[in-house]
Design a protein that fits this description.
This protein has 5 helices and 5 strands. It has helices at residues 11-23, 34-44, 60-68, 91-94, 118-133, and strands at residues 3-7, 27-31, 48-52, 85-89, 110-113.
Length: 134
């Protein structure tokens, strides 16, 4: 089954994500900061990343996605550029800010809003994994 890396600093949110994913048979790994997440990407080579926006800084998730999707062929993350990224955020429910995937500014594949509906999460994960296969 697919390996999923959750990069999230809130232990309760990690549990809320881990339980439905593991119940579906996914192999789940966790990093609690952007830097730890980048290290684990190289270590475990996940099939999908679920990435929180606000961790050690308010834009940590954005910075991680920019590093992973760097167009620089010499980037240390070039081998991982095609791993699907699902951004996890509460920004749409707590502010009037709206954003979406953008290749230059926010290079991710999809979003899931907090609080996370387990069925929505699983559907987005399935869709991204299927898309990555083709």
């Amino acid at each position: 089954m697919a390996k999923i890396l959750i990069i999230e600093d809130d232990p309760d949110m990690v549990t809320a994500l881990r339980l439905p994913l593991e119940a579906e048979g996914y192999e789940v790994y966790v990093a609690t900061s952007g830097q730890e997440g980048l290290e684990k990407v190289k270590e475990i080579e996940p099939d999908l990343i679920i990435l929180d926006v606000m961790m050690e800084t308010t834009t940590a998730g954005f910075q991680v996605s920019l590093q992973l999707r760097s167009p620089d062929p010499n980037s240390e993350y070039a081998p991982y550029r095609d791993i699907p990224i699902l951004i996890l955020t509460a920004i749409h429910t707590t502010t009037s800010l709206r954003f979406g995937p953008d290749e230059a500014y926010l290079p991710v594949d999809d979003f899931v809003d907090k609080p996370v509906d387990p069925e929505v999460l699983l559907q987005k994960v399935r869709t991204l994994l299927e898309r990555a296969k083709s």
